[in-house]
Write a structure and sequence with these properties.
By secondary structure, the protein is an alpha+beta fold. It has two domains: 247 residues, DD-peptidase/beta-lactamase superfamily (Beta-lactamase, 3-Layer(aba) Sandwich); 130 residues, 3-Layer(aba) Sandwich (Beta-lactamase). The protein is built from twelve helices and 14 strands. The strands form four sheets. It has an eight-stranded antiparallel sheet, with helices on both faces. A two-stranded antiparallel ribbon has the order 4-9. Helix 5 crosses helix 6. The protein starts with a helix and ends with a helix.
Length: 399
Amino acid sequence: MKKLLDEMIHKSLLENRFVGVNAAVYQNYECIYENSFGMANQEKNQPMQRDSIFRIYSMTKPVTAVAVMQLVEQGKLCPDFPVSWYLPEFGNLKVYDPQTKKARIPRTELRVQHLLNMTSGMPYANNMNPTQKDVSAFYYEMEKRRDSENPVDLAEYCRKIAEIPLEFDPGTHWDYGISADVLGGIVQAVSGMDYRDYLFKNIFNPLGMTDTDFYVPAEKLDRFTEAYMHDQLTEVYVADGKNRIVPDHGCHLGLNDYKTLPAFISGGAGLCSTIPDYAKFATALANGGVSKDGVRIISERALSYIRTPQIGGESFRKDQDWDSLRGYDYGCLVRVLTDKTTAGTLANLGEFGWDGWTGTYFCVDPIEKLVIFFWVQLACAGTTPEAKLMRNIVYGNLK
């Protein structure tokens, strides 16, 4: 397996697909493969290391799903209850009506479950409908205020999002968006703790995760990977037409530069981590919610709830056309494998996980007690073809 994985990943760097890669495989808590390739920062000639720190963006979401389900286990929260019971500002929600082109009262009440499975009608910023445009305007405001004396924090974020009409009645469609950020606000309100503090007390500290946070402290910045983008995402003209990768210094999704603790603690995209550190969380998910050291962070039943397909195949396919989700359904902030042939994978049915916007991918198989990581830092990378290749190499060579 090692030879096949090394050759495939080396080839991707020779083809200038990425600047650097970290990859690893864990089974039964043990690391059975890991390697680092290329550069963490090519401008500084800084090689990739096993403990290089990555922006993991939407790999934050599975952490938020576990935080929510911990409160469900304690009877402090119920997925079927209205969001407004926990965040009263959502009691006066509106939804855009495409027929009248006006906002109206939703026909279905927004519930916590709609946030968990992305059927809330709360999209990410874009310009394809009025809701996306309103979210874009708010994120622009967040960016302007980010370094001011009055930045947007999580509580204000939820209040402002509640003022934006939904793009559809809750539960009627699936659209990937900002639901996990609102869930972070719910955890904060229900627990009475700052959301970051809640995660440290209930997930990160119990698991011994010392390199996972919403920023990178000064003493760890020498391990922080550079973010990159393909040059066609810039206005740079490339005369020879060759693919080039350039640093990406933009700030996305209302986040800051990761060098200081942000006011906005994003439960959907805010975390940074390393593979060995996130593996403490992911291997717990692969082993029924229990860490290698015997610490339980979530019950088997609650974990089963997270990885239960919830949307329905045909409905899900109509609402999204992502190549990375072919053969998958959606659970609670994770994809769940339901059709191996459509996905083109050797993985077991029920394999689940997610990826981050800059190409941090992980998958969890509770049958094999297996976790696979393929991490890069490249804008818009998501689940890369190499991550899919790695997944099949691993499954095809498991003992």
